[in-house]
Design brief:
CATH class: Alpha Beta
Number of domains: 1
Number of helices: 7
Mean pLDDT: 90
Strand content: 25-35%
Number of strands: 8
Order of helices and strands: HEHEHEEHEHHEEHE
Shape: globular
Strand order of the largest sheet: 3-2-1-4-5-8-6-7
CATH topology: Rossmann fold
Radius of gyration: 16 Å
Length: 202
């Protein structure tokens, strides 16, 4: 399956799969929205509204060029500027693993949004396990950095995240793996390069 925003920027197969989880006409907060491509797609194709949060100057400029509402803000400072259930959906797509306050931000995601959708690289994917067995840290399409220059300060698996969600009294509404845009529900912890969770406060 392929798709493009109306500005012409293609979404990855994984982004398209995640976009399908967002109900049409939702009010969305996209944390670490990057260039705004996913939010742009949700607004123009699924009739959503909302804001992105991004810290990088170039990404903020790209969001503005798309016409995407963006707030330049450091997520390490939390989400105190947003009230409870301010949004229908809060997205954290490939953001959580970059944060030092990952557990706090997970709780904040569930507080600010009626539902949260979180996606991150699954370190339990079989090529990653094989690389570690060979004595090296994995370098893959989803984890493309060397161990010494990676922005990912945390690595985790589907099982790790499920345990963290339970520990923080969050209800998992759905979870699966993604591999090249395909949902993996059979042994996703070993067979998928990306983990996806849909959750809410219990």
């Amino acid at each position: 399956m392929t798709g493009t925003t109306q500005t012409g920027s293609p979404l990855s197969p994984d982004q398209l799969s995640i976009a399908r989880l967002v109900p049409k006409e939702s009010r969305v907060l996209d944390l670490g929205c990057g260039t705004g491509a996913l939010l742009d797609y949700l607004i123009k194709v699924r009739g959503c509204s909302g804001y992105g949060v991004e810290i990088d100057d170039a990404n903020v400029q790209a969001c503005v060029a798309r016409g995407v509402n963006v707030i330049q803000f450091n997520l390490e400072e939390g989400l105190a500027l947003f009230g409870d259930a301010s949004f229908d959906v809060v997205l954290q797509i490939d953001t959580l693993q970059h944060l030092r306050n990952a557990e706090v931000m997970l709780r904040e995601t569930a507080r600010v949004g009626r539902i949260g959708i979180v996606a991150f690289p699954n370190f339990g994917h079989w090529p990653n396990r094989l690389a570690v067995l060979r004595g090296r840290m994995p370098v893959t399409k989803v984890l493309p950095y060397q161990w010494y220059d990676t922005p990912n300060i945390r690595v985790g698996t589907l099982r790790d995240f499920a345990a963290l969600a339970r520990q923080n009294q969050l209800q998992i509404l759905d979870s699966f793996g993604l591999q090249d845009g395909q949902e993996i529900r059979f042994w996703p912890n070993a067979r998928a390069s990306r983990a996806v969770f849909k959750l809410q406060r219990a």
